[in-house]
Amino acid sequence: MIDIKPITHEIQLSFGSSDVKRTVIKQNSKDTHILALTLYDNNDAVTVDSDWNITLSARKPDNTFIVEESENSILVSGNTITIHVSQQLLAAPGSVSCELAIYQPNGACYFSDTFFIYVEPNVNSGSELESTSEYHSLVETLGQAKEYEQEVLKSKENVDKIEEAIQDTCNELKEAVEITSGLIEENRIIRQNESERIQKESERQQQEERRQADTASALERADHAAKRADDAAIKCESLLDDMMEQFSDTEPEDQPEGFFWLQEY
Fold first, then answer.
1. CA distance 215 to 221
2. SS3 letters for 15-36?
3. Nearest by Cα to 110 from 99, 118, 119, 94
4. Taking the model in full, what pTM does it have?
5. pLDDT by residue (tens digit) across 112-167?
6. Are 35 and 132 in contact (CB under 8 A)?
7. I want to staple 68 with a disulfide (CB 3.0 to 4.6 A). Which of 52, 56, 101, 200 is the partner?
């Protein structure tokens, strides 16, 4: 007996391209289809680093979603990302919207363009398939229930991570608001101090101008007083000279040397 190899669907994805990528897989296929995704950036192939965390996010036609991030289902080789298509991904017929989320160790996150898997419905479904093998149906149901449980656990973990990230962001915003408020208050105090300094400097300049004006006025009055004093001294000296001449005409012939005599008239 010859085993049929899994069917590989090669899809080229880029960042920011508008090309619609689409492939077709039959509903309820199990362990028979592989997605070989190649990443491109500006037409250049992107080599995928082994440190990157890659997940496949998909929204199914029944409006439920699934996230594949298991190392067993997502493998990396060079610039090719290989994903084994799970039966859960192909459970509902119709178009499945898919995208890759790539998380780098530095915290950066990249999303690929959206690509589509058209899940072609089975010819027989529902009760027809269940009647073929009740045991097989029970096994499949248990397997799906286990997958649902894993999805719920993953979803809860993602919700917890998102909640933690939101709380961290709120704390950062609160700290940023406090720092900004402090800077605003410091700036207000600086402006107030500068205004007071300018006011005091203006008052000092006005006082200096008044002092200089008062000094100039005092010097002018002093110069005027000195001139009046000089004029008075000159006048007094002239009067003394006149009196000395009169005294020299009336002094006796025998007055002692160095004395002046006053005579009555």
1. 10
2. CCCCCCEEEEEECCCCCCEEEE
3. 99
4. 0.46
5. 889 999 999 988 765 444 444 444 455 566 667 777 777 777 777 888 888 888 98
6. no
7. 56
pLDDT 10s digits, 36-88:
998 888 778 888 887 888 899 999 999 998 888 766 678 888 778 899 998 88
Where b means 16+ CB within 10 Å and e means fewer, 110-139 reads eebbebbbebeeeeeeeeeeeeeeeeeeee
